Amino acid sequence: MALSGVGMASAEDTIKIGHLAALTGDWAAYGQTEANASQLAVEEINANGGVLGKKLEIVVSDFKSRPEDAVNAVRRLIDEDKVVAIIGANGSGVNIACAPLVTEKGISQIGTLSTNPLVTVDDKGAVRPYTFRICFTDPYQGKLIAYFAAKELGKKKGAILYDVASDYSQGLREFFLKDYPAYGGEVVADLGFNAGDVDFRAQLTKIKESGAEVLALPNMGKELALIMKQAREDLGMTDIVFVGGDGYGEFMWDIAGDSMENSYWVSHVAPEDEAMAPFFAAYKAKYNDECKEFMNGVMAYDSVYWLKDAIERAGDADPKKIRDAIEATKDLKLHHAIITLDEQHNPKDKDGVMLIAKDGKGQLYKKIKPE
Predict the structure, then answer these.
(1) 8 pLDDT exceeds 90?
(2) Per-residue model confidence as pLDDT tens digits over 210-223
(3) Is the CB of residue 75 less than 8 Å from the CB of residue 61?
(4) Which of 34, 122, 327, 345 registers the highest number of CB atoms within 10 A of its CB?
(5) Is residue 63 one of the residues assigned to a domain?
(6) Is residue 224 part of a domain?
(7) How far apart are CA 198 and CA 210, in angstroms?
(8) In this predicted structure, what is the pLDDT of residue 315?
(9) Can you tell me the mean pLDDT for 339-367?
């Protein structure tokens, strides 16, 4: 399913960019927010003159929260919709699956929240020439979780519960396991589950018995909420602290309720950041919604603005020139951060933000850089 912006001019007067987003399935809350945000960015850009004298058009393609559907969605965006670049997705496994296709077709793809290192480099370390990301990576994010748990919270006995089939989850787990002992922590339980599981009590019982003080949750979607709910309500694990990555979503409160309270989450943006206030106000005015999945919204919104800048620097909408311009990005001031790409297509030196889940929403706890 591809959804195209309405009210566009003729094809000769438009530049089409694709957006790979999960509009249905378990990740729909993330994807629907992304689609709204990218459309908002395009409308703002067009209202201010467009790009190179042309209108931008966003074409959203639903990958249904399944990596296996993403390749077909990207193929349609390129072959049928004739997009010149793509933003999304928000999952590492999705971008990894799509990387050979976008390389073959010569169309750049910017991952919104795709943090696994293998998104932009292959397993031999070679850079994927047409794949980029706007977010920081799992080595940095895993280090943030480990540092925060051991140093900031002082919790030296840690457990981890991860999705065995997720590139994102595996990546965060790998780097947490590596860095947590370096900060004085001991991993006392390392357990997995399968995507789609709904009962985590067996794993949580082992974690409870291990004496863990902190539980690292490198996951996405409803499983996160179910894990916390079952730990608190079914097993009485009231003292253990939950610390997770950027899979946090406001929709999880609907499932976990008060079990979410006082958990901590890595974020790419603080909702209280004054620089983002105009975006949140515009989003609310257009959609009558608070942009609850704010990480996804901000990353999609700024990815469109990044592409606008790249197309302008390229001087036309040729996909190869756009790719070269994206790769050469330096000191680009977006709304949430200043972006300079490194040699592996990752933003350099982005601050990490820790959120605390409190009073029914994610709030800024502090900005943090691990030692």
Answers:
(1) no
(2) 999 999 999 988 99
(3) no
(4) 34
(5) yes
(6) yes
(7) 22
(8) 97
(9) 92
Measured CA distances, 217 to 103, 169, 238 (Å): 33, 8, 16
Q: Are residues 223 and 283 in the same domain?
A: no
Residues 193 and 77 in one domain: no
Q: What is the pLDDT of residues 84-97, one digit of tens each?
A: 999 999 999 999 99
Q: Is the pLDDT of residue 30 over 90?
A: yes
Please indicate, yes or no, if residue 348 is contained in any of the structural domains.
no
> Measured between alpha carbons, how far is residue 363 from residues 135, 140, 170, 249, 268 in Å?
19, 21, 26, 12, 12
pLDDT band for position 67 (cuts 50, 70, 90): confident
Structural domain harbouring 81 = 2-136+272-340
Tell me: do 227 and 242 sit in the same domain.
yes
